[in-house]
Input
Amino acid sequence: MSLSTGPRRPSRLSLRRVRRGGGYVRVADPSWSDPLDGSYAAKNGGRWNPPGSFGVVYLNANWDVARANVRRKFRGLPYGPESLEPLEAPILVETEIAVDDYVDIITDDGCKAAGLPTSYPTDGGVEVPRSRCQPIGVSAWDEGAPGIACRSAAWVGPLYAEELAWFERGGSLSIRQTHRFEDWY
Output
């Protein structure tokens, strides 16, 4: 699927690759019939895909990164995730993903190759906007990449934490186990 509308792609990117796979976790709404369905991101967009584009399932490298993403969604609100009713609180889905070569937004060289600062996910102390990341995602999709391995924009700490944007294009992603909010958060 090549996209001709939406965010402009950076010209002449030479996207680097990094090998990733194995266990990842996904924060999901308990009402979703399929927690590994990327159609919501295809419709509304995400960090690495513009609205009205391709399906992406956004994954976290571990439970700590998943918790950071939940906290991020509640940032600035007068209540936290702990205030949610148990049936409304996000679940955690443990997944297994096939090992493959993902676009590298982990290493400094990978960030530079994609036209991002080596300080990604920030630039001058400000979070790099989705509008800057989405064209990179379109380029990765057009190149046939299985997805993007990236530094987490939700993680706050001295070291980078990882996320994986898995492109829905027929690869292998399966559920290993699901956890209720009170058991994982």
